[in-house]
């Protein structure tokens, strides 16, 4: 009788373990999906910001170029064209960021860094662990209790 009971308990225990493993897997998959959706939304916001900024900067660049060109012709000073060069580089960068392939080149470079220069990605004092968080929490709680006294 005891053997039958222990066998039943073992089966129940195994089913419980499988259930817990399945739930943990589902929770992890949901967290990964949620983090990916958050990353995608943040990137979309960054691209949208670049496109919006480009509208304003493009207008500024156009008006500035027009004004400098008119001034250079009117005053016969070709040196007034000089500011157009750096402003043009900024415009080109913004256009590349908003509509070009900059994001793909950045991703490619990031992948290269992860593969060949992984040591640059190490955090100071190493990765965060449960122990390090608990150590700091205990230090703060003991420090806080000392202040109260």
From TrEMBL:
<keyword id="KW-1133">Transmembrane helix</keyword>
<feature type="transmembrane region" description="Helical">
    <location>
        <begin position="79"/>
        <end position="99"/>
    </location>
</feature>
<dbReference type="GO" id="GO:0005886">
    <property type="term" value="C:plasma membrane"/>
</dbReference>
<protein>
    <recommendedName>
        <fullName>Plasminogen receptor (KT)</fullName>
    </recommendedName>
</protein>
<dbReference type="Pfam" id="PF10166">
    <property type="entry name" value="DUF2368"/>
</dbReference>
<feature type="transmembrane region" description="Helical">
    <location>
        <begin position="53"/>
        <end position="73"/>
    </location>
</feature>
<keyword id="KW-0472">Membrane</keyword>
<dbReference type="GO" id="GO:0010756">
    <property type="term" value="P:positive regulation of plasminogen activation"/>
</dbReference>
<dbReference type="InterPro" id="IPR019319">
    <property type="entry name" value="Plg-R(KT)"/>
</dbReference>
<keyword id="KW-0812">Transmembrane</keyword>
């Amino acid at each position: 009788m005891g053997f039958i009971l222990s066998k039943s308990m073992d089966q129940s225990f195994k089913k419980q373990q499988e259930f817990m493993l399945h739930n943990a897997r589902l929770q992890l998959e949901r967290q990964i999906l949620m983090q990916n959706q958050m990353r995608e939304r943040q990137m979309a916001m960054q691209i949208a910001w670049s496109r919006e900024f480009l509208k304003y900067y493009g207008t500024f660049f156009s008006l500035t170029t027009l004004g400098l060109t008119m001034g250079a012709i009117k005053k016969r000073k070709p040196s007034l064209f000089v500011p157009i060069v750096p402003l043009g580089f900024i415009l080109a960068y913004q256009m590349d960021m908003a509509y070009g392939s900059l994001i793909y080149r950045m991703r490619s470079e990031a992948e290269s860094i992860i593969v060949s220069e992984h040591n640059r990605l190490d955090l100071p004092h190493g990765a965060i662990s449960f122990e390090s968080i608990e150590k700091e929490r205990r230090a703060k709680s003991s420090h806080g209790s000392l202040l109260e006294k």
